[in-house]
Design goal:
alpha/beta; about 325 residues; Elongation Factor Tu (Ef-tu), domain 3; 12 strands; elongated; 6-stranded parallel β-sheet
């Protein structure tokens, strides 16, 4: 998959494209339905399937300081998009100036002059242009003027968990699941485990003293961190997924105040991880964070956490 950052990186001789547009944070099941339709329609029309996405998240620019919790870093997002079979991804730097482009100008500049769109596929709730004034209906009208077709697809429903119709899969719905620690529900929406990436930094080394050496992760900015608790999952290092018990919280047993994300890789005390870029994938939540009355009580619970983790992911 070709990767471009900014309109200037798109080759001037780039041919006709089938395009979809969006943030695609997490590249969840709903996104993948749109992307599958894009790839299929592009193949049928002999067009190159292209994704136009944004960095940073538009809300961070339109509403400064909002920085919505992110389900994926940009590099991970691009890797996930590559898995869908698209030919290229255009990352549009989302600036204040870019946010002020009127919807018709966005279509002309991005879709017509740069990507030479022959077909555009988006979700039915897609909005674009200054103050999100552009709708699917406007896109269809502009497409008729410029010679491309436009399709708005219905959103993919989540699994029903109670009475009534389920909500559509969305990044907002998945972020809410992550925030309350329901990483299993988040995985159902994503179609894979929720991931947090970052750099391993030094901690208190208390885990090593207790016999459970942990990797203390400094997450990437604005990452969607699950609620405090203990989880089963994997530490991903150089593409290898290593079963791990994961703790998120302040270590209340030791009166900690700094919220941390720490992972103990099962049966491994030989990993040299300081300064390494790693990821943590979450499988399931084991329990809430608890303040124990003694170190022995903590060790007994940690042993049980590791045993449960081994059953789930080991």
């Amino acid at each position: 998959m070709r990767r471009w950052r900014g309109l200037a990186e798109v080759p001037q001789d780039w041919g006709r494209s089938a395009v979809t547009i969006g943030v695609f944070d997490g590249v969840h099941r709903g996104h993948r339905a749109v992307l599958a339709n894009l790839v299929d329609s592009a193949r049928a029309a002999n067009l190159a399937p292209v994704v136009a996405t944004f960095d940073p998240h538009p809300l961070e620019v339109v509403q400064p300081g909002s920085h919505p919790a992110l389900l994926s870093t940009v590099p991970h997002r691009l890797d996930l998009l590559a898995e869908t079979g698209v030919a290229a991804t255009l990352v549009l730097p989302f600036t204040v100036e870019f946010s002020q482009l009127p919807a018709p100008e966005f279509v002309r500049l991005v879709l017509v002059d740069t990507l030479h769109a022959g077909q555009v596929t988006v979700g039915s709730n897609f909005r674009f242009g200054h103050k999100a004034a552009g709708t699917v209906e406007l896109l269809e009208r502009l497409g008729a003027d410029y010679g491309f077709g436009a399709t708005g697809l219905d959103l993919v429903p989540a699994a029903a968990t109670g009475p009534g119709d389920p909500e559509p899969v969305s990044s907002t719905l998945i972020r809410a699941a992550v925030a309350r620690g329901d990483v299993a529900e988040a995985a159902a929406g994503l179609g894979r485990p929720h991931r947090v990436e970052g750099t391993v930094v030094e901690g208190d080394r208390r885990g090593r003293e207790l016999g459970y050496p942990t990797a203390n992760l400094r997450p990437t900015p604005h990452a969607a961190i699950p609620a405090d608790g203990v989880y089963a999952g994997w530490l991903v290092l150089d593409g290898q997924s290593l079963p791990a018990a994961i703790s998120i919280g302040t270590n209340p047993t030791f009166d900690g105040t700094e919220r941390r994300v720490e992972a103990y890789v099962l049966d491994r005390d030989d990993l040299e991880l300081y300064g390494r870029e790693v990821a943590i994938d979450f499988a399931d939540r084991l329990r809430e964070t608890v303040k124990f009355h003694s170190v022995d009580a903590l060790l007994e619970q940690m042993s049980a956490d590791v045993a449960q983790t081994r059953e789930l992911v080991g």
